[in-house]
Amino acid sequence: MLSIAVDAMGGDFGPRPIIEGTLQALRERSFKAILVGDVSAIKPLIPDAFLNRVSFVESSDVLDMHEAATNALKRKETSIYKAVDLVKEKQADAVVSMGHSGATMSLATLRIGRLKGVLRPAIATIMPTAVFGKVSLVLDVGANVDCKAEHLAQFAIMGEAYAKDILKIAQPKVGLLSNGEEKSKGNEITKEAYEMLTKMSSFVGNVEGNNIFDGSVDVIVCDGFVGNILLKTSEGVADSITKIIKHNIRKSPLAIAGAVLMRKVFTVLKKQVDYAEYGGAPLIGINGCAIIGHGKSNAKAVKNAIFQAITFSSSNINADIENKLTIFES
After folding, report:
1. Does 275 score more than 60 pLDDT?
2. 171 phi, psi to nearest 5 deg
């Protein structure tokens, strides 16, 4: 049975939504949860019926969201440090944290270590598309601000492996995010990466921002600077569209009537753009599994982040990444 280390003290709302999400996951899946944090605060939140599948690791410190990520390396008593170390010591198969994303990424990379051949791990995120039931995967979205061509090429390998092993896409299409579809478009790094990526049979060439959401490509590769801006912009657009729709509906009785008829459509739309549906973003390229969640995560998001960790840890993705990276050695 898989063991998932959960940073019970991370997140903006304290341990309650994290514990509730963990309990929801335990009700639906078979795994063991290792809760890391202030045991006196979190143990009373666990019903007796779950104690046979829940263990606790005491942590006397919590890394604040506003602190520098580098502080995490010195603060060995923080909940995130101890949770990551459980994976390092093979006492847990994966770590899930809704806390400081930079700290989680840094600790996972340095404490757990990278896969053989991986230069830099990447954070991947799932994006909704206009095609029903289809999503796209974007990486990197924040782990690596400055990238070389070989980093982007490796992100493509990691993204392709995730699409196959986790998203179950048999033949994923991989695109390189650029300012035009033509081979000549992009900066010097993306042009160099383009040439490297031609060795991949799944590579379809350059793609533009709109292709992330139109369902034409499954994996989109970019550096963490561009990817993070893309992620935050997408979140902002989705939130703004929702507010605009609500505002205009309230202004018109006819629109209210239409909204009642379109309620199912709005429900589906809300579900597609809700981060809680996906739970968190995997840090791909480490010798283990780390899922990085949103600080404002509710119980549903925590549950789905744990589900991601279970799926990832049950797959052969890390071995597949190591094997596929050899394509660039020739």
Report:
1. no
2. -130, 75
Annotation: CATH topology of 1-118+285-318? Isopropylmalate Dehydrogenase (3.40.718)
* Among 29-38, 94-103, 176-185, 261-270, the least confident range: 261-270
The sign one gets for the Cα dihedral 65, 67, 70, 74 is negative
Domain boundaries, the chain: 1-118+285-318, 121-278
Cα-Cα-Cα-Cα torsion 165, 167, 170, 176, nearest 10 degrees, comes to -100
What is the distance between the alpha carbons of residues 220 and 140, in angstroms, rounded to a whole number? Answer: 9
Q: How far is CA 25 from CA 21, 130, 271, 301, in A?
A: 6, 29, 19, 10
Count of residues in the chain: 330
* Domain 121-278 sits in CATH 3.40.718.10: yes
Confidence band (pLDDT; 50, 70, 90) for 21? very high
pTM for the full model? Answer: 0.88
Residue 262: per-residue pLDDT: 54
Q: How far is CA 266 from CA 215, 239, 248, in A?
A: 20, 13, 14
Whether 198 and 156 have beta carbons less than 8 Å apart is answered as no
Please give the helix or strand (H or E) that residue 183 lies within, else none: none
Highest mean pLDDT among 101-105, 232-236, 300-304: 300-304
